[in-house]
């Protein structure tokens, strides 16, 4: 009975991903980061199909076998429980154990379904990956893409384009790089920096260094700085120039369930003057939660190159308005008069040339920014269209940390955001962030 349910739901799911049917499924896919309630977000047509399969399966099996009310009750309890759990976004028991057992790798976990909501065209299975395997659709993934994944393009969800889209550049981000950062020489450093320029964001695994060594390395990339808005002394309670990002205080006590990272898409320092925004970030993973807690990235070079002509025409007249005060309010921090004087409101053109190589990038600021026309009037329609274009899975990369991972990214080439994890005090997420402002003195 469960096998028939799995087959029916998997087939129905595949049908809903056909271009002619996707209009009924895109309501469900409007939720990118799944939560338990996501299971109930669906179009009536999709809901009707699910109900026919669930109830029809029971009727069909009951014509072959005599089923007791207890079996029918257990069947409906399981189907409801599984639907909620697989949309939870977290590998709660028993899925945490299942994901660590190769013999059970055919079972669809919340990790697989979260990946499906992010990337669209893969992991379409309902309960198992058997049917995906038969159609050669399944991809061996975790909650978010691992570093070193050689997939060059993420599958785009079916849409009905209103005009031809220019060729999309190959997915660049997440390039793995093998070097010891504490011992890196000048030639190796030059190669690494060129890799950051070429890929926007790279991953250097298996690093072991002190905070002083991280600062010394960062100082070779540019002027060591910190993009911290408002009053956040806890960021520097261990080191004066390296930000401590964690859901635990330095003394080992839990900050509580309301701990908030930067869980909106943003560019660091979007409230700074344009001349101060060319920043390289060096982020080191010290402790990581069992599930989630990674960082997502968007390739703004690829997004700019793929702008449809009509949207480009609108974007050329827009400025991105960013407010340090608004950012501090979002992060629940005090914002002093000195902060206001140091960081006045900023307006920069949305379309911008990278200062090092002239490539066009989209300066999106953050999801808190306001896009204005030439008269400084908000343009919400174009703002929404631009973010829909930029937040396309085809130029996204999701990195799930392992202890010792160091990721380096170019702030002008990328958007990024912290990804959710179970913050109940059982797991510590501890990252160390150093940043370098690239100036004319650093010719890389």
Automatic annotation (TrEMBL):
Sequence ranges assigned to domain TauD/TfdA-like in this UniProt record: 171-434
Keywords: Dioxygenase, Iron, Metal-binding, Oxidoreductase
Region (Disordered) location: 151-172
Alphabetical list of InterPro entries matching this protein: Fatty_acid_hydroxylase, TauD-like_sf, TauD/TfdA-like, TfdA_dioxygenase
Cross-referenced Pfam families: FA_hydroxylase, TauD
Stored SUPFAM superfamilies: Clavaminate synthase-like
Domain of life the protein comes from: Eukaryota
Recorded coiled-coil stretches: none
Gene Ontology MF terms: dioxygenase activity; iron ion binding
Annotated signal sequence range: none
One GO term of the biological process aspect: lipid biosynthetic process
Residues in Fatty acid hydroxylase domain copies: 2-136
Family: Belongs to the TfdA dioxygenase family.
Name recorded for this polypeptide: Uncharacterized protein
Native source species: Cladocopium goreaui
């Amino acid at each position: 009975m469960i096998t028939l349910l799995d087959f029916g739901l998997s087939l129905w799911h595949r049908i809903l991903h056909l271009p002619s049917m996707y209009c009924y499924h895109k309501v469900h896919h409007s939720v990118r980061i799944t939560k338990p309630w996501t299971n109930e977000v669906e179009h009536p047509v999709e809901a009707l199909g699910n109900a026919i399969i669930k109830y029809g399966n029971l009727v069909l099996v009951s014509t072959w076998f005599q089923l007791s009310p207890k079996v029918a009750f257990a069947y409906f309890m399981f189907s409801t429980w599984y639907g909620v759990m697989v949309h939870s976004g977290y590998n709660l028991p028993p899925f945490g154990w299942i994901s660590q057992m190769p013999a059970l790798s055919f079972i669809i976990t919340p990790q697989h379904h979260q990946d499906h909501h992010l990337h669209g065209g893969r992991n379409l299975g309902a309960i198992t990956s058997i049917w995906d395997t038969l159609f050669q659709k399944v991809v061996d993934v975790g909650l978010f893409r691992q570093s070193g994944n050689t997939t060059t393009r993420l599958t785009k969800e079916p849409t009905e384009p209103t005009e031809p889209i220019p060729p999309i550049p190959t997915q660049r981000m997440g390039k793995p790089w093998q070097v010891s950062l504490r011992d890196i020489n000048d030639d190796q450093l030059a190669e690494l920096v060129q890799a950051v320029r070429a890929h926007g964001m790279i991953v250097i695994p298996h690093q072991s260094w002190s905070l002083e060594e991280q600062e010394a390395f960062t100082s070779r990339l540019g002027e060591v700085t910190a993009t911290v808005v408002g009053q956040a002394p806890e960021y520097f309670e261990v080191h004066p120039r390296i930000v401590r990002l964690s859901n635990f205080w330095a003394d080992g006590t839990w900050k509580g369930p309301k701990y908030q990272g930067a869980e909106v898409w943003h560019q660091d320092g979007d409230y700074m003057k344009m001349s101060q925004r060319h920043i390289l970030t060096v982020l080191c993973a010290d402790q990581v939660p069992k599930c989630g807690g990674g960082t997502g990235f968007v390739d703004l070079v690829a997004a700019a190159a793929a702008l449809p002509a009509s949207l480009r025409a609108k974007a050329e007249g827009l400025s991105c308005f960013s407010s340090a005060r608004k950012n501090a309010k979002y992060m629940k921090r005090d914002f002093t008069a000195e902060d206001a004087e140091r960081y006045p409101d900023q307006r920069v053109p949305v379309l911008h040339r990278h200062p090092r190589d002239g490539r066009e990038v989209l300066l999106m600021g953050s999801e808190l920014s306001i896009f204005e026309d030439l008269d400084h009037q908000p343009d919400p329609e174009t703002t929404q269209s631009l973010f829909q274009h930029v937040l396309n899975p085809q130029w996204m990369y999701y990195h799930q940390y392992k202890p010792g991972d160091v990721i380096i990214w170019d702030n002008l080439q990328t958007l990024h955001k912290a990804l959710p994890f179970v913050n109940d005090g059982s797991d510590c997420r501890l990252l160390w962030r150093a940043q370098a402002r690239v100036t004319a003195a650093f010719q890389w």
